[in-house]
Amino acid sequence: MSDNRYIPLPQSAGYAVVVGLGGVFAFGMMLITYVLRRYNREIMTAEEFATAGRSVKTGLISAAVVSSWTWAATLLTSTTIVYDYGISGGFFYAAGATVQITLFACLAIKGKERAPGAHTYLEIVKARYGTLTHCIYIFWCLATNILVTTMLLTGGSAVVNDLTGMNTVAACLLLPLGVLLYTLFGGIKATFLTDYAHTVVLVVIIFVFAFSTFATNSQLGSPGKVWEIITALGETNPVEGNAGGSYLTLRSKGGGIFFVINITSGFGTVFLDNGYFNKAIAANPRAALPGYVCGSLAWFAIPCLISVTMGLAGLALQDTPSWPTAQRLTPAQVSAGLVLPNAAVALLGTGGAVASLLLVFMACTSAFSAELISVSTIFTYDIYRGYIDPNAAGQRLIWVSHITVIIYTYVIAGFAIGLYYAGISMGYLFELMGTIVCGGVLSASLTLLSKHQNHAAATWTPPIATALAVMSWLVVTKVKFGAINVNTTYEDIAMMTGNVVGLLSPIVIIPVLTIIFKPQNFDWEILKSIRRVEEDEEISKAIRNVDSKKGDIEVNIHPVKSQISIIASEIAERNYTQLEEEEQLLAKSYKKAVVICSALTLCLLILWPMPMYGSSYIFSKQFFTGWIAVLFIWMFYTAFMVVVYPIWEGREALYTTFRGIYWDLTGQTYKLRAWQEANPEKLHVVQSQIAAHMLASSQSRGQIVYEGTTPSGGTLTPTGIDEKLAKEY
Question: pLDDT tens-digit profile of 199-209?
Fold first, then answer.
């Protein structure tokens, strides 16, 4: 980009948002952590940091899914595809990336049912297949996290630079700072709470853009006016490969190729991203199915509405005086995701620039937080606890988590800076992802879904499939375009080939390896040997230290950990059937999930788009108006699901918290102490220990048969199974 380009906001605005707003979120998280500790008695143990007590409800799970899946690419790439290929791009992005979250609900439920004590998906891999397979999947999961986080920083920094002129390198370094701070203080609970706050801002800004484009803007202002301008543009500047050259059709060659790329790469970035398993593990058993299904449907409207709104607004306004640049965007600018911020400025002037800056900042930071937790749990539980110090207690594990978060943040920032100087854009990374990581999707899924997949199939499928995918990608590039470089490897047909081979080749590889090396007959009960971290030391220390000088309730009522343990044990004993009921609920939920998720996938990928694609239908004015109306209605559902419903679900906790604050502010702290003394079962630390006691009791009853040694001399430990045992099953 030239240095004399139009920049709508001063550099100070970029620093104010990136550093200032990030600092506000960090301070807010510190405050919330204190409030939760004082009024709800949440003690930040290693378990709490990684799993949030395994009790998160449907609304927050849905909000977290929406926020984590709303990357910078969700907003920027989807808008770019509409700008390039028309309205098909918005639908193909939304539908092609919704099905993965929907289908993941099945995996989430099976994970909670079969390994209720797990902290990461990789612990399950190790428990079933042993060290070698575990290390291979660690590599693939970390590769997924690295690609996703790098894409967040490259896309976010490009937009910040375009809107404010802020140095791209500075943006890469400073964007993660606030996220780093609040993740350190609040763990995965911070991710859930900030996900909620970020999602509220995202929804509001998307509504502002949509109402401006389709209701209030002086140049556009209605679906009919937008239809007229875009229809005329299709006649004067037709889109190659689209039906009639129109922007208003789902029959689009380029859009269809992107649809395939989006579907395939999406499977890799959901099914191999430990962050989604983190959310499943943190979910209340009753929230796993509705949380993911309702969250996926709520997410659909976000890319679909924002891309159609801003992509078509960009096309309609790019040749008008309101367009912020003197000429149309270059291909490099389009690839960098700059259609959305320029369209926002054309729509709303400086206000649009501020709104798009906030929008991208929220998308980057919310997804970045989820990636930090994902990576920290892998290093903490799979690497450090798995191979360095298997007996590590809670405080040491939290220390490892904190160190991991800090180091990873700035290693990945340096990597993003390197890609910036190498000319690798967010769009390139988005389309490349499936080629690199999709080879592990099917084998990873079958680890939880099929007892017959053997050690060889699980271990060697990801490297073989990825090698085939990379080879196919590069061969097609060379054959079709004559040379291998950044530009030719970015061609749609080459990227699509790599993605498809990566995802689908395991369909052949896994059965072949299973037949050659014989099917496994795995006993799922073994996965229940994976245990929670012992929290005695952490809780005891917290009870001794927190507010001890003030004679706070934690000291007066529970001076030692054993009293909490006694209370939790008594309640767990009274509710000893609850865990069995939850297992039965999860089994029923899985059957429902298969039906619901299969039906939704069929609708989104086949029944809805294929007739419109096959018929080459071009939207009439009335049909386009109805399409926009449906997207608005869907977006209102999203607002209810991720903004209103979490508050309704948490109304009791909110009431308790605000009542406690009121008592403190009015000098009635004695009432807070009395209430907590009378209702220990409502304190979060007790609830967490109740769940721990019930799980431990179940494991001691159901898993004692696996303790000790195996027929060949292998040993079963609380955290996994060795190589010999893996082969036996």
Answer: 888 999 999 99
Burial class of residue 35, CB neighbours in 10 A (0-12, 13-18, 19+): middle
> DSSP string covering 38-98, please?
HHS-----HHHHHHGGG-B-HHHHHHHHHHHH--HHHHHHHHHHHHHH-HHHHHHHHHHHH
Measured CA to CA, the distance from residue 106 to residue 448 in angstroms comes to: 10
Closest CA to 310 of 242, 213, 176, 216: 213
Identify the pLDDT of residue 563: 56
CATH number at residue 481: 1.20.1730.10
Q: Cβ(696)–Cβ(703) under 8 Å?
A: no
How many residues does this entry show for the chain? 729
Residue 70 near residue 363 (C-beta atoms within 8 A) = yes
Residue that has been written with the tokens 């994902």 in this structure: 374
For residue 712, name the pLDDT band (cuts at 50, 70, 90).
very low
Query: Across residues 209-230, what is the average pLDDT?
Result: 93
Rounded to an integer, what distance in angstroms lies between the CA atom of residue 662 and that of residue 668? 8
- Would you say residue 469 has pLDDT above 90? yes
Q: Is-contact 372 411, C-beta < 8 A?
A: no
Three-state DSSP state, 187: helix
Are 355 and 341 in contact, with CB atoms under 8 Å apart? Answer: no
The crossing angle, in degrees rounded to 10, of helices 253-271 and 131-164 is: 130
Residue 544 lies in a domain: yes
Within a domain: 314? yes
Percentages helix, strand, coil for the chain, rounded to the nearest 5?
A: 80, 0, 20
Between the two ends of the chain, the Cα-to-Cα distance in Å is: 59
Q: Where are the alpha helices (DSSP H) in 381-454?
A: 394-422, 426-437, 441-449
Amino acid, single-letter form, for residue 116: P
* C-beta of residue 306 within 8 angstroms of C-beta of residue 79: yes
Question: Which letter, b or e, does each residue of 549-576 get, where b requires 16 or more Cβ atoms within 10 Å of its Cβ?
Answer: eeebbbbebbeebeebbebbbebbeeee
Distances (CA, A) of 685 to 31, 189, 280, 285: 19, 14, 20, 19
Which residues lie below 8 Å from residue 653, measured CB to CB, with a gap of 6+?
A: 40
Domain extent at residue 127: 11-649+683-728
Is the per-residue pLDDT at 66 higher than 70?
A: yes
Per residue in 610-652, pLDDT (tens digit) is: 999 999 999 999 999 999 999 999 999 999 998 899 888 888 8
Count Cβ atoms below 10 Å from residue 423 Cβ, excluding itself.
Answer: 11
Residue 447 backbone dihedrals phi, psi, to 5 degrees: -60, -35
Q: What are phi and psi of 337, to 5 degrees?
A: 90, 25
Interaxial angle between packed helices 72-85 and 426-437, expressed in degrees from 0 to 180 and rounded to the nearest 10: 110
Q: Considering the domain boundaries, does residue 659 fall inside one?
A: no
Residue 287 CA to its chain's centroid (Å)? 17
Supply the DSSP symbol for 421: H
Q: How many CB atoms lie within 10 A of CB 192?
A: 25
Helix (H) or strand (E) holding 717: strand 715-717
Structure tokens at 556: 């007066």
Closest CA to 301 of 644, 72, 633, 677: 633
Helix or strand (DSSP H, E) at 708: strand 708-709
Distance CA 279, CA 63 (A): 11
Q: In what order do the strands lie in the sheet with 715-717?
A: 708-709, 715-717, 720-721
Largest Cα–Cα separation, the chain: 79
Q: Indicate whether 369 belongs to any domain.
A: yes
Task: Work out how many domains the chain is built from and give that number.
Answer: 1
pLDDT digits (tens, 9 = 90+) for 337-387: 788 989 999 999 889 989 998 888 888 887 888 888 889 889 988 999 889
